Every structure is written in structure tokens, then in C-alpha cells.
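Protocol step 4 of 6: structure prediction from sequence.
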Amino acid sequence: MNDRVVLAYSGGLDTSVAIPFLAEKMGAEVVAVAVDVGQGGEDMEVIRRRAIDCGAVESVVVDAREEFAARYCVPALQANALYMDRYPLVSALSRPLIVEHLVAAAREFGGTHVSHGCTGKGNDQVRFEAGLAALAPELQVIAPARDHAWTRDKAIAFAEEKGLPIDVTKRSPYSIDQNIWGRAIETGFLEDIWNGPSEEVYAYTADPAGPREPDEVVITFDRGVPVALDGRALTPFEIIAELNDRAGAHGVGRIDLVEDRLVGIKSREIYEAPGAITLIAAHMELENVTVERDLARFKRGVDQRWTELVYDGLWTSPLKRALDAFIAEAQRHVTGEIRMILHGGRAVVTGRRSEASLYDFSLATYDTGDTFDQSSAKGFVELWSLPSKIAAARDTRR
């Protein structure tokens, strides 16, 4: 029996060329797996048929949109996951889900190898292969673009030679990856980090300077999970999709970042993530209202480490699982509503409401009805300052 290669298939040039290339190079049968994570674009049935037309013996399309939102985007939201304090892990979140479905397909169709279209310069090769090593170490990995130093010109020539049913003449100046959580754009003139991005780069967001009326939205959370918009119960996927439209219309979520890649280089990346940035801002503010100070302080460090692990492709690592448990516990009281104004490229919180709120009006007010006992403050300040006072006295004696 021939080897069977399960290919992470996008329907684009590189992965379409990979089908006959792997068949020719290895004498293998190729099973193409396309995973819908809300990336939009071409109809997934068209992509499925294209894989067959390119020579795949099986072609599978997985509708993972709701799964991706609930099992990957929501945990990232609960962790307020922003790599380098800015990037909401758009691509990094989708890779472990795709790996799960590659492994499932390998077991269903008797796959012996798994293949992806990543180059040796990017983070995704690590995310795919670290995930595969954890879930199915028996599967061997083939990365044609990396291992055989493909260039676009070589891929186009091979596609024309084989008569593949893909448009090999269209050339985008950018490399783009997108899903429901956001969109990543790189390469082309963006590689000169002095060049500013032009409006044509963006697809999820409108020009923030454009004239439009502000949009007010109320987001409801239950234990850190978004469950409703403006009182309408929706799934996480539906909420992210609607906020992509509404916040995107106001230019919310544009990010221009020189990023520290896992492979050791710096890379200029443009991101747009209107739904993700809006939800993270709302979730952070609800945590400010409902999470006790020491827990909140500690969680900020946990959130950062969680984010780094996911960025680095370690979704299935023991530390990541342990941090998941901590974050879940920290979400016990993160229930309530956040009101926001979307306008001019910003998502601004204007109201908070929660039955689990730790904000006590009678303690916080400076007006009549203040129940805070200010007479307790003098002794508290003296005791709090005492170690520093003693140390300062010592230092002046030396």
C-alpha cells in the first residue's frame, strides 16, 4: 500500500501544487483537509473539488467555525491574550485546531504522513509540528515549501507544467492569513518598516478617519464567555462575526507591529482584528470590576505566559493546561455587561454592570453617604510605610 499524506489544504497555489508534487516525489496518495475557521473568501465546496482536480484521492472540508470560536478564541479572550501587548494571536490560535483535524483525518484515512505549506522562516511550521508531536508522534511530517526551497516562480512553473486548475497568474503583493478572530498581512512593500500601510491592505476594517455616527454596543459575559450583544443571545462565533462588522466599520483593531518571531527574527506585521480587540477591551474592564486585586495582579502574569505559550506553538503543553485551569477559576465571577462606543478606530468602555461587582458605591463615593472610615487610614499608612522608613534610616547612618 502506498504511503498516504494528509495535507493541510488552503486551496491556494502552494498547497495545490503540493498535491501532485507529493504524489510524484513520494509515490504517495494525498488526502487534502481544508478547515473552515471563518476565513471567508472562496466557497469551501469549490476548494474541496479543486483538491480532487489537483490529484487528491480524498478531499475533506471541516466546518470548524463554531468550534474555533468556542474552544480557541474564547480561551484567548479569557486570557486577554495579546502577544507583545498588541497582537491577538490570529494565526497562532487556528493552528492547533487544524492539527486536531489533520490527525483525525490521518486516523480515518490511514495516513502515514502529514504535510503543510509553511516555510522555514515562519512561526507556523513550529505550531503545526509541535502540535503533531504531542497528538500523533507516529506521523511523519513533510514540508515541501521549506524542505525543497520552493519559490513562487517554481510553484507557478510546476502548476503550469501539470495543468493544475488554479489561477497562477494572479499575484498579490502580500501574504495574508485570516480567520474569524482577525487578519494578518505581511511581505511586499510592508517589509520596509518605514513604509506606512495603504488603505488597500485592509479588508476587515474601514478607514478610522471616515465620517460616521458612533455605534453603541452592550456585550454580556457569563464567566468570561461572551453570550449576548445588546441583549440578544448569540454564540461566540456569532458575536465575533457581528463585532467584526460593527467595530470594523469604525476602523477598530488595526495593528502595525514589528514582531519578535519564534524563529529568532523580527518581522513587520499588519493585523486587523476588530471583534477580538473590542471583546478583549470589554473583558478586561469586566475583570477590573469583578476580580479581586491580588488575583487580578497575578493573572496578568499568567495571561502573558499563556499568550507566549500559544504564540510559540505549545497549545498542548503541560504548562498551558495548568494555566488553563487557573484562568478558568479566575473567571468564576466575570459575569455582567459592558457598554462600549465604537468610533474613530477605538472601542471605548462607557458603562459596567455586574451582580458580582466588587465596586461598592458607598465606599467609593466622596459625597454624602460615604461609609469609608477615613480614621483607619492614618495607622494603615504608618504601618505600610514602616519597612521603607526603617530602611531609609539605616541607609542614612552608613
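Step 5 (inspection) to follow. The chain has three domains: 4-171, 176-291+333-353, 361-397.
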